[in-house]
Amino acid sequence: MGQKFQYDESGSTFFYFLLSFLALILIPATIYYWPREKKRDPDEESKKCHCPNCVKKREYQKHADPWKATKNFLIKLVIVIGWILLLLLAYKVSQFDYEMANFDPYEILGIPLGASQGEIKKAYRRLSLILHPDKDTGNEKEFMKLSKAYQALTDDEARRNWEKYGNPDGPGAMSFGIALPSWIVEKENSVWVLGLYALVFMVALPIVVGTWWYRSIKFTDQVLLDTTQMYYFFFHKTPSMALKRVIMILAASLEFNKKHNSEIVERLSDNEEVPQLIKKLPNLSEKNKEPPLCYTYSIKARAIIHAHLSRIPLNPNTLELDRRYLISKCPYLIQEQVNCVNQLIVLAYNRRIQRLPTIDTIENCMKLCPMIVQALWEFKSPLLQLPYVTEDNLKYFSNKKKPIKSLQQYAQLKKEERRNILKNLSDNEFEDVTKVLANMPYIDFQVKYEVMDDENPTEVTTGAIVTVIVTLTRRNMSSLFGNETVVDNNLSTENGIDGETPKEGGGDAENQVPAIKRPAWLKQKRGGGRKNKKPTKQQPKAIVGTKPKVEESPVPSTEKKKAKEENNKEEESEESEVSDAETNDKSSEEDSAQKSNNEDEDQEWEKFKKLHEREKSLQGKSKTSHPVHCPFFPQDKQEYWWTYICDRKSKTLLTVPHYVTSLVDQEMVHLKFTAPNWLGVYTFTVCLRSDSYLGFDQQKDIKLDVKAAPAEITEHPQWEDLEEEEGSAKEDAHESEYTTDEDLSEGDD
User: Fold this and answer.
1) Where in this chain does the record put each J domain (predicted)?
2) Which of 263, 494, 613, 624 is buried most deeply by CB count within 10 Å?
3) Handedness of CA 118, 122, 128, 131 (dihedral sign)
4) CB neighbours (10 Å) of residue 319?
């Protein structure tokens, strides 16, 4: 059989191409772009806070995008039109298949199989008078089918081919069709076709790809590359950076510069309003001459951030609009600052840069995020995060014998005491305070450490990889209502972070691990419930199988027989006791073997759980946790947390800050670092920081007793001298980057 290439004359394969192409675009577009409304909770309105600031925020969010309804309508319209076209194409393709699959010349002529030539001609004449296009009842399409059927049956060769191959033309050649109609290659349409190709592939496609590429190379995630480079410069220049300096760097972000961001609005009124605002803000450092901190956009953004943190009202038509835009971009800019400081610390550890940023710098960046979200300075009372609570109300919290300084302390009071403190509020206002306080987080922060993939996971040796397992269990603050026995874990410490110090020996700290169902291959096989009998004490007896000597006495024969029978019974009982003792010994051996098997299974199960926890920690995390009450933040916010390990004595960071974004009920985080290379007892701090609330940070200390690693067996004694020389040189050249407890005590002395 030959081969031939041909365009689609009838257009059927072209419609197949259009159908598949449209389906490939339409199905994912419908899934991802179809506008969906959030499911409304029937109790949602009762859960909302109705303080003036929250009501104002919701009104702003409703009118923030006036074209949202129009955009959603157009998206729905385009998708619906696409599905209509898809259905029409599917119907047309099905008709093509029906016509091609139902060509039967005998059926078209209405004659039986094996009819003679006369019957074929007679049927053709009769039907042609009805279907001829010149007749009133004519049908050109049906007449073409009739003519083709007549030709297939009047030609002997064509008739044989049809009966044998199902095709009047015989066995067809293998053809490769191009799913394009033939009019595309016709000479008359060549100009239009070439013009369309040039428009799509030489104009539209390069513009789309170039625009996407130009925009993508300017950003890392959501932050401009130039902004990231500026962060690197300033954090490397100032290793230990104060909080106000961090605010200055944040305000200098190029996202706030109109040259780099077209969404920024510059008004003529800024020349009057910004200087007036600067006069109200102390310690703004607006006279700083360091670029870009001295640029106009940077000073304006810094003034707006300071006004936001001081909760100073701004002009709703000008600076208030700028405040909402600037503040909404701050959380992910602060996250980029944290990432930059962390990268600099890594580079310093690798000896690529000389200046090592301190832990204070990265913690000041983290402190700034909840300050921005709650619109409060760090030195302000965390009680101001509650609705209706102002500076004037704080004096009522300090009138008690034990002053209330934290939200946790206030939640532990009885309802009457909480109401008595805020007795100046109405019942509805106090209800809002209670709802907000009840939904705030109360985190159970548990820490334990171990050395993974080691024979003794609780023993830390020099250079070992230590895995710290942080378990975060979230409950609502309502669980503390009226519970005065709960220890307040959130009192501020000298280190500037909240929390309590656990007992020594972090490796044995309690850690509530979520229950995991055992796999079938690790289920223990239990016995049928049969209890093992205690082995009875064996009485001293003669050798088994020999009869003891009996003294002769003048006893009748019947009594002698009885005595013999009793002696036989005693011998049988002794033999049974021996056999029972042997069976008891065997059962005890079986029990000990079963216990050892159970211990091995338990060890395998523990390893399986650890692997499961590690796999779970490596899985992708969602961005949904719990909503944050933040009336001064222009957008909705979810609770996120940072957790990391640091050395407070040397002010160094041991692990990358892990950003927890999916803490709904419980979350487990694995933090890994390398144990010090020098022997001693080290105290490290595991920290937990909130990016949404003030006063919810915690920290716990873990003590590592670092011991010497097992000595390696060397097969080449000639290398020992060389290794000793290298070891002494290293000890002279380097000192431990961590501080042991012994070093600290010597320094105190």
Assistant:
1) 104-166
2) 613
3) negative
4) 24
For residue 452, what pLDDT is reported? Answer: 75
Task: Please tell me whether residue 492 adopts helix, strand or coil conformation.
Answer: strand
DSSP calls for 438-462: HHSEEEEEEEEEEETTSSSTT-EET
Residue 335 binned pLDDT confidence (cut-offs 50, 70, 90): very high
Distance, in Å, from the CA atom of 283 to the CA atom of 312, rounded to the nearest integer, reads 15
Could you say which DSSP state residue 523 is in?
P
Q: In what order do the strands lie in the sheet with 441-451?
A: 441-451, 465-476, 666-674
* Total residue length of the chain: 749
Judge if pTM exceeds 0.70. no
Strand 465-476 relative to strand 460-461, pairing: unpaired
| pLDDT (0 to 100) of residue 735 | 46
pLDDT tens figures, 570-611: 555 555 554 555 555 555 555 565 655 565 555 555 555 555
Domain ranges of the chain: 3-102, 187-216, 221-378, 381-439, 452-473+484-521+600-749
CA–CA separation, 351 vs 439, rounded Å?
46
CATH number of 381-439: 1.10.150
Q: CATH top-level class for 221-378?
A: mainly alpha
Q: What is the DSSP string of 621-687?
A: --S-S-B---TTSSS--B--EEEEEEETTTTEE-SPPEEE---SSEEEEEEEEEPPSS-EEEEEEEE
Instruction: Please provide the CATH number assigned to the domain covering 452-473+484-521+600-749.
Output: 2.60.40.150
pLDDT tens profile 84-133: 999 998 888 777 655 555 567 777 888 887 788 888 888 888 888 888 87
Handedness of CA 711, 715, 720, 724 (dihedral sign): negative
The Cα 260–Cα 364 span in angstroms is: 27
Residue whose entry in the numeric block shows the structure tokens 């944050």: 628
Question: What proportion of the chain, given as a percentage, has pLDDT over 90?
Answer: 40
